[in-house]
Amino acid sequence: MPLWLEAGFWGFVASSALLIGALLGWFIRFSAKTVAYVMAFGSGILVAALSFELVGSSLAQVSILWIAGGFMAGALVFSLINHQLNLPEVKHRKRFQHQPPVASNTGVAIAAGTLLDGIPESIAIGLLVASGGKLSVATIAAIFISNIPEALSSTAGMRRGGRGGWFILRLWLGIAVCSGVFAVIGAVFFGSAPAHIKALVTCVAAGGIFAMVVETMIPEAFAETHEMSGLVAALGFVVAVALQALEA
Q1: Which residue ranges make up each domain of the chain?
Q2: Which stretches are annotated as coiled coil (predicted)?
């Protein structure tokens, strides 16, 4: 299979959880605390994945200055764009209990916020595939798990706002496809780049993912499970480390 096609496949697979979350949000009513536990667990997995696989793999390629600069650049870009999307519905796009009914123009805003979350993740997948390394199950699982609560909560809000099931399905399917496209972009545009450039771009993606976790996932998990969110996130971190060790 060509590398670009493999990258697109894994990018779509990781984002296909949006469709699962949408179906769960449409047919099943979960408690806010259950969704928050999933969010906290996914946060721990993502932090471990970007620490060991993304940033960790770059340590042998570039200096710490390149790593720090790329990481901070990615975090800065995500934070600035996320700030521009600071509508109430988008700011709390991963929250379940307090998700407001979605107005006619808010579906696009939520989609933009969700796509923003997925861009650094998808580019990182494309880079990992293009680099010829083994794509970690922990990384795919982390991105997969983190997408479920977002689609679940947003779907529940859009349903209360009167949006039909076909509109919601097309919305999340479109975002999943776009995520696959960004994974292809990561593989095609940076796959043949020098090792230090790929390492730099990987760190930029890692910084964006880290900012996404801190600004969207952890606050929403803490809002419902502040007594146990740290413990559940730590469990996610340990599970990701264990998966990394098993694949080594």
Answers
A1: 3-26+51-247
A2: none
